[in-house]
Amino acid sequence: MAMLGFVVVASWWLEFAFKTRVLRDPKRVLKTLAIVVPFFVLWDAYAIAQGHWFFDPEQTLGIIGPLDIPLEEYLFFIIIPIAAMLTLEGVRNVLPVVRGWISQIKKVRSN
Amino acid sequence: MPYFLLAQIAIVAVVLAEIFIFKTGLFSDIRFWLAYGIVVFFQLLTNGYLTFNNIVMYDPEVIGGTRVAFAPAEDLFFGFALVTLTLLVWSKIKPSKGNS
Fold this sequence. Notes:
The complex is a heterodimer. Chain A has 3 helices and 1 strand; from the N terminus they run ααβα. Chain A is mainly alpha-helical. In chain B, strands 2-3 form a two-stranded antiparallel sheet. Chain B is 62% helix and 7% strand.
């Protein structure tokens, strides 16, 4: 749970710092999640049922949702995709700025 | 079906989805790879923490055995599939009105 909190803090500031307009467009976020998440929830359910991976009950909340999937996993499937969107949009907005700096530095050097 | 096989199928499925369905051109966009590089760094950090502390554990029978930062290498495949499919769909869906 602490780990998910870290990801939220580490990624969601991009929305404000770099004006990524991800969280401002909840429709687009929800549509994306609605298409992507079911595949991975089913994979998670299958993997848990088959015992591919399992969680320490001492170090998790112990709240188990539908398909025997812990609450943290459901939150993971919301938080991680949004972090990915924020990262991509952050890069999209920052890269031109960085390129601008580089060309500025080159200009100064050539003068 | 073991995890290593599922993980490989997932990667192939996502790449095929881009080629035949989404056609976003994201794979030839340097910004996608920069973003993915940032995501992988944080994945290694957070997933390494979860696996090092045995918060998440894996059946040794269903993984190849290669570990990267304590976590099975398959997790990188899982992560690639999740993050890439998300960004393909995200790029395909245009911003809602007033957000372009």
